[in-house]
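Narrative of activities, Objective 1.

The group set out to show that a structural description can be obtained from nothing but a protein's sequence at a throughput compatible with the screening campaign. Below is one input-output pair from the validation batch, recorded exactly as produced.
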Amino acid sequence: MQISRFIKLLPGLALSAAALTLLPGCSVSHSKTDKGEEVTIKTPVGGMNVNENVDPKQTGFSVYPGSRPHHGDHDDSGSVNMDMFGMKIVVASFEADDAPEKVADYYDKEIKKYGAVLQCKGSGMRFTPHSSSGDGWGCEHGEASDIKAAATGDGLELKAGSKNNMHIVAVKPKGSGTEYALVYIRTGRGDSI
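Output recorded for this entry:
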């Protein structure tokens, strides 16, 4: 899953979802402000809201000191807050001047409040809630035995939580600094953050 993929879907969602307004009881709204875009779809059986304006607190993490928002391709915000038929995904992307291992160490301590932490080798800024079994977590690219080596190499994913309430931090090098994403995924209507 790429962070910017959600952002790139916003205009397309608004256009393709406009057909829903032809159905009774359905509505679609799309707005664009200096803080980002928002698409809201309401149907009699549920709805969807996708918004680029993300409060990082919604991920359950603090922002690493000295960070600034990351802007992806085409100056998208690199962040998204999506509620869709009971599922919630919040992604907040940042950049920091500090080395990836320092950012990873900061979040390795912070993510522990959500349970046992799985340290996974990353693949750029792609992250996945991949599960190797029905109830557990898994690493798509293998576990990272050395957090510093993974953070400075292809990247690192720190994962904690449960199958329905996941917290992920993805860290990768960017020049002499770091690009990272704070992620919260709730797949059911259970406990949040």
